[in-house]
Design goal:
α3 links the parallel β5 and β6. The strands form three sheets. The chain has an eight-stranded mixed beta sheet with strand order 3-4-6-5-7-8-11-12, with helices on both faces. The chain is globular and about 55 Å long. The protein is of the alpha/beta class. Helix content is 36%, strand content 15%. α4 packs across α5 and α8 runs antiparallel to α12. Belongs to the AB hydrolase superfamily. Lipase family. This is Lipase. Pfam families: Abhydro_lipase.
Length: 408
């Protein structure tokens, strides 16, 4: 029973918009992982990348607002990480995940390993608050202010500063890959001229900007019960589904409201190719915490159907933004010069096709599209067939735009 509850929890937090703790995970008597302070060698490189035979180095990026983010650099098994020849590519994970998301399956199935083997200079981002990142220059993770952010800050600080760091190290434009929340971050960031000018091309998996047509029953249940407002009213600022209250919360939502025996489909839509036999292994790394404010921002988007900054209410909006409503992120400001490649699925209840069409109409550049009718939200990250179905197409796209395609 304990394992089944744990499996439900990890499916919930991975799948709910999928696509953030500095801790070492251990199993408690209930079977739900608990959190311990990280040891110096408790890094993503040491856990998943070096044991697979891939050179890996860890970098720390300080954001403009003081967060210390772990950034990992990965080379092919036959390469020298100090003498990369291929173009840099940044992988940006989704909600309740971290950089480990790109390495959870075998080297033949995981995008991070696959790109390294194709000669790319792979950089792996980890947003604030995740297990692999390193806190803040002055705030503790126990401080309320540490969690005072949403995907808006992840886009305009975390992603922006990581892209700038990679650009300064490699002295070249980067390729970008985002999944789910990683695509919200990128689409918002790419509306900023100083950020987008450092990007060669971008691949978006399950892209979400507009969320007005999310149809996942479990998600809609949480939106309708105003879970986001309830959590903040309770003074909970760190959204940690490994905590006792997080587990009880999931139980209360499932009780009589949603059939949690099929929870994955209730959150993401039906996934065709997810490897259920690896849930116990995924549970060693997922989920990562996020902020309650981030959840509220996403729920605001679902309720209002807008792609805009965080809504603080009329008076605070006027004080912070100079207007009563939060400013929109204008997708029309993403320049035509940025090539985009988008992969989406027919069974994805989070990245809805109708919402994607809304996004496409606002973009100046017509992206290349890959539609997989039987794919759900998780499949684009963890499908056993993703290399053939998705990643090979993505790599061909990058090669078509890379200035040094003959070298990778």
């Amino acid at each position: 029973m304990a394992k089944s509850v744990a499996a439900v929890v990890v499916v919930v937090v991975r799948s709910f918009l999928l696509c953030l703790f500095s801790s070492q995970i251990a199993a408690t008597p209930t079977g739900i992982p608990s959190l311990r302070p990280r040891l110096p060698n408790d890094t993503l490189c040491n856990h998943l990348i070096l044991p697979a035979g891939y050179p890996c180095s860890e970098h720390t990026v300080q954001t403009k607002d003081g967060y210390l983010l772990a950034l990992h650099r990965v080379s092919s098994r036959t390469g020298n990480i100090s003498e990369q020849r291929g173009p840099p590519v940044l992988l940006q994970h989704g909600l309740f995940m971290a950089g480990d998301a790109w390495f959870l399956d075998s080297p033949e199935q995981s995008l991070g390993f696959i790109l390294a083997d194709h000669g790319f200079d792979v950089w792996v981002g980890n947003v604030r608050g995740t297990r692999w990142s390193h806190g803040h220059v002055s705030l503790s993770e126990k401080d309320k202010d540490f969690w005072d952010w949403s995907w808006q800050e992840l886009a305009l600080h975390d992603l922006a500063d990581v892209i700038c760091y990679i650009n300064s190290i490699t002295n070249t434009k980067i390729f970008f890959v985002g999944h789910s929340q990683g695509t919200i971050m990128s689409l918002a960031a790419f509306t900023q001229p100083d950020i987008v000018e450092m990007v060669e091309a971008a691949a978006l998996l399950c892209p979400i900007s507009y969320l007005g047509h999310v149809s996942a029953p479990f998600v809609l249940r949480m939106v309708n019960m105003h879970l986001d407002q309830m959590i903040l009213a309770m003074g909970i600022h760190e959204l940690n589904f490994r905590s006792d209250w997080g587990i009880k919360l999931m139980d209360s939502i499932c009780d009589g409201h949603v059939d949690c025996n099929d929870l994955l489909s209730s959150i993401t839509g039906k996934n065709c190719c997810f490897n259920n036999s690896r849930v116990d292994f995924y549970l060693e790394y997922e989920p990562h915490p996020s902020s309650s404010k981030n959840l509220r921002h996403l729920f605001q988007m679902i309720r209002k159907g807008t792609f805009s900054k965080y809504d603080y209410g009329l008076f605070k909006n006027l004080k912070l933004y100079g207007q009563l409503k939060p400013p929109i992120f204008n997708l029309g400001h993403i320049p035509k010069s940025l090539p985009l490649w988008i992969a989406y699925g027919g069974n994805d209840d989070l990245a809805d096709v109708t919402d994607l069409q809304h996004t496409l109409k606002e973009l100046q550049y017509k992206p290349e599209l890959l539609y997989l009718k039987n794919y759900g939200h998780v499949d684009f990250l963890l499908s056993v067939n993703a290399k053939k179905d998705v990643y090979d197409h993505m790599i061909r796209f990058f090669r078509s735009w890379g200035k040094s395609s003959s070298s990778y």
